Every structure is written in structure tokens, then in C-alpha cells.
Amino acid sequence: MTLIERMGLAALHRFDPETAHGLAIRALRAGLTPAPGPVTSSRLRCRVAGLNLPNPVGLAAGFDKNATALAPLSRAGFGFIEVGAITPRPQPGNPRPRLFRLREDKAVINRFGFNNDGMETALQRLSKRPAGAVIGLNLGANKDSADRAEDFARVLAHCGRHLDFATVNVSSPNTEKLRDLQGPKALSALLKGVIEARNWLQNPIPVFLKIAPDLTQSELGDIAEVALLSGLDAIIATNTTLSREGLTNPHKDEAGGLSGAPLFDKSTRVLAELADMTDGNIPLIGVGGISTAKDAYAKICAGASAVQLYSALVYQGLSLSGEIAKGLDQLLDADGYTHISQATGTKKQDWL
User: How far apart, in whole angstroms, are the C-alpha atoms of residue 188 and residue 230?
Assistant: First the structure.
């Protein structure tokens, strides 16, 4: 992190978290943030779920909810970018305050509730996306929808022609009963509709599923089975957690999903279990608590083909993405790997 970036973060942290986030997006659009361009090497370039990535370090959904900063994010060093979640109709989300920094815990709690501008506005912005970047959309459902499963397919059908991948998000804890869609019967029906919508696109794209970390072994096994049977292209493990174990910050009891450093072990364990259950038959993307190259490497070794981060940017700035990619390259080299795929799952047993 540069001195200027450190000063910028210090200034942002004088504001409430949601206001600061909005200012960060504005700074991005104004060109005031690091823009190193693609970070890549022969070790880092990879193909995951049919996507050619310059490096395996992606931006998780939630940072650019409304696809307003696609161009600057494409120059920020990420290997791929996921925006959203986007629902069919605009919705305000839950009342503020709904975003909390837990500085001592290097964590964040949010209860946004899929606040977004809706798929019509998202479509306009995605249609002007930068060429060459790998951009995906996190699909959501409206809180008051009569058919939430159909909402996911509607957003994909509407925006899919401007995407490289789409993610079905049934794991947010901030929309009531949304996680119920992770059950095998409901999930199978939902994914069938989404896959059909994907197949109707002129250029069909990969479809991912994002799961929660708060699943039992049996529930995780059901999801693995459904994923393999449904034709999914990858699984993202994991979303935020409802657990508050080990937290010290006064905001620890706020309702919502917890992300950041405290999630690392839980999400990595779920990742390894999923890798064991799917036996390499579906790519996994590891997310949850990554703040260093070592963290990213641990996810890769636990079974991930690629990783995503978000919460650590709150404390370490946007340049972190490039730093992690470069550090990952060095760690692979030190262990004698010529390509990142050689490291995937090599230490899975350590987490089982």
C-alpha cells in the first residue's frame, strides 16, 4: 500500500462505512485509485470453468453492487470481477445503518438486503463494459417476489449477453428465507430454470453457485450432488457467516453476515470438504477472509482453482489485489510449481 492510499483509507474511515464505500466508488471512477493493469505470469494465467483468467484473484460481489465502476476495476489488478447482486426490480434494501467495521477483528458485518438499481439499469451499464476484462454478475431475487427462483433466471436472461459468467446467490443471510433455496429440491428446481435461461443465450456463459459457510456436512453433501447433476460450472465457497465466534468489537452482535478474517478457517474448511465431495469434478472458487497472498495460497491448496476477496480491501486498499497476485506467484515458485493448477487441492486433507 502506498502512502497516498494509506492516507486515503484513513480519510475514508472518518465516515460511516456505507458513506465511505460510496466515496471509494467515486474515487475509483475519478481515477484516484491504483490502476496497475493486468497482473499476470505463466504461473498465474489459468482457465477456470471455461474462463481465461490473467490471474486467479477475483473481486467478490458486493463491492460494485450496481456495475458503476467496471472500467477502473478492470485496471485494478484483478483476474476477474463479479458485480451485483442485481434483482429484477430496484429495491432499497434494509434500513441504515446496515454496514459495520469491526476493526479489531479485521472484519465487516453487513445486512444490506440486496439494495440495487435493478436489472434494467444494470443492463445499460453492462452494455458499456470494458473489453478484455472478465466480468460476472451476482444474480439476486427481490425481497417481495412471488417467485424468487424465477427472479434469478430473469436477471440472467436480461443481462447475460453482456456477461462472462453469472452467479446464483442463494446464500445471503440478509433476505428472509433466501437460504432455504439451498435445500436439494428447491435448489435443483432453481438451477434448472437458470441453466435453461443460460442455454437460451446466443453465447451461453458459465453459471456459478455461491453457498453459505453455515452448512452441515449433510447439507453440503446435498449441494455437491445437486451441483454435479445440474450442469453448474463452478461453486463459490463461501458467502458471509452468521457466526460471531471469537469477535471482540462492540458491533459484534449486529445482525447480518460477517465477512473478513474471522471467516477464513470456517470458509476454508467448507471449501476443502466440498473439494473432497466433488473429487475435482467441478471447479471451486475460494472466498472468505483472504487478506494476504498466503491466505490465497491456502485456499488454492485446500481445493480452489481461483479465489475472491472484498472485505480486506476496507482495511488494506485496492492495491491489495495486485499484491496478492504477485505474492501468490512467488509462493508457487518457492514450492516448485510451474502453474497454479498444480497446487490446487494439495493440502486439502489438512482441513478435513
Answer: 7
Are 285 and 234 in contact by the 8 Å Cβ rule? The answer is yes
Q: Which residue of the set 74, 145, 172, 311 is catalytic?
A: 172
Per-residue model confidence as pLDDT tens digits over 38-76: 899 999 999 999 999 999 999 999 999 999 999 999 999
Retrieve residue 29's grid coordinates: 471512477
Q: Is residue 130 part of a domain?
A: yes
Domains in the chain, number: 1
Domain contains 4? no
Nearest to 339 by CA among 77, 42, 79, 54: 42
Residue labelled with grid coordinates 493448477: 341
Specify if 146 maps to a domain. Answer: yes
CATH of residue 91's domain is 3.20.20.70
Is 172 catalytic? The answer is yes
Q: Is 231:213 a contact under the CB 8 Å cutoff? A: no
pLDDT confidence of residue 325: 97
In the chain the beta strands, taken as DSSP E runs, fall at 46-48, 51-53, 57-59, 80-86, 99-102, 107-110, 135-139, 165-169, 207-211, 234-237, 257-260, 284-287, 306-309
HSE-up of residue 211 (Cα within 13 Å, Cβ side) = 31
Q: Are the CB atoms for 344 and 304 separated by under 8 Å?
A: yes
Helix (H, G, I), strand (E, B) or coil at 20: helix
